[in-house]
Amino acid sequence: MKNILITGGLGFLGSYCIERYSKDGCNIKVIDNLSTNVVGPDYFKDIDLDIKNVLDHEWDKNEKYDLIVHLASPVGPVGILKHSGKMAQYIVDDVYWAIKGALMNDCPLIFISTSEVYGFRDKAELLKEEDEKLLVGDFKVRNEYSTAKLLCEIILDNTAKVSNLKYQILRPFNISGARQLRDGGFVLPTFVQQALNNEDITVFGDGNQVRAFTHVKDIVEGIYLVSKTEKINQIWNVGIPNNVSTIGYMAERVAEFTKTKSKIVNIDPKTIHGDLYEEAWDKIPESTKIQEELGWKSTYTIDDIVKEVISYYENN
């Protein structure tokens, strides 16, 4: 039985990680400051968890872990805005803290990065792990987020060159599914709640932004497979190129499946979220590596994801 530490474990992605590793009978410790949590500790009353607040946690030599899954981070196109100017410090400080724990326990560290590290593309294209990272434009909050995540990747790689650190880096693409909150600015739960309330479905800009939505369980299966492989110090894209769609199309599917009276309207997001808000660049995942080397495969289509999110919010 393995002892696993999951940071940010009460968040959207973390809650699914807890469920996946609990199926293996793992002892799971969660560190979460409850700043962006999706589920409370009571949600896991049937799973034996040790939950601590990250602000109070110091590494203890008596604690023994076989794996650290580091998920904790500001998230969401809107959720990151309140951390402007401080976010890079949060993200980088936390990865140094996680590295210290991995070295102390001589255990692998899984770092959840972001597809945002690829940065600017003038049109949507398949992105491979080794492709150039093109961070251009003004010093927006979104660039602070993506650059901090990329710096963490560099820190992990360089630390491993001079120590016995064993790491894995995952770059997830457009995670979605039941339990995701709209608070962080996530588009699908926003559209669904607007549709169910017969409010205008607010599509930012012209709605032609390209995304490849990936179900959270598929992302977590990627994390799980990476944690089992003997291929260490690797970077893995996790996403579904077949799920490519525009934001406008997602709004249409939500409207169709909910049979809402809502109208789809195009608006300027800055009128809602202020001048700090920026849209992500278009991107499509090239996930051949994790498919061929680890046997990962997608299990949810776009329509599956939309219908699940609708069902969740109809019943919660």
Q: How is this fold's topology laid out?
A:
Layout (H helix, E strand, L loop, with lengths): L2 E5 L4 H11 L4 E5 L17 E4 L14 E4 L16 H19 L3 E4 L13 E2 L13 H21 L5 E6 L2 E2 L10 H10 L4 E4 L5 E3 L1 E2 H13 L5 E5 L5 E3 H12 L5 E4 L2 H4 L10 E2 L2 H7 L7 H13 L2
Parallel strand pairs: 1-2, 1-4, 2-3, 4-5, 5-7, 6-15, 7-12, 8-11, 9-14
Antiparallel strand pairs: 10-13
Helix pairs in contact: 1-5, 2-3, 4-6, 4-9, 6-9
In short:
This protein has 316 residues and is of the alpha/beta class.
The dominant shape is globular
**Number of helices in the DSSP assignment:** 9
The ordered H/E elements are EHEEEHEEHEEHEEEHEEHEHEHH
Strand proportion = 15-25%
- Determine the structural class based on helices, strands and strand pairing: alpha/beta
Q: Low-confidence spans: pLDDT under 50, at least 5 residues? A: none
Mean pLDDT: 92
**Total beta-strand segments:** 15
* Major sheet strand order: 3-2-1-4-5-7-12
Percent range of helical residues: 25-40%
Spatial gap, N to C terminus: 34 Å
Biggest sheet character: 7 strands, parallel
Q: What is the radius of gyration computed over CA atoms, rounded to a whole number of angstroms?
A: 19 Å
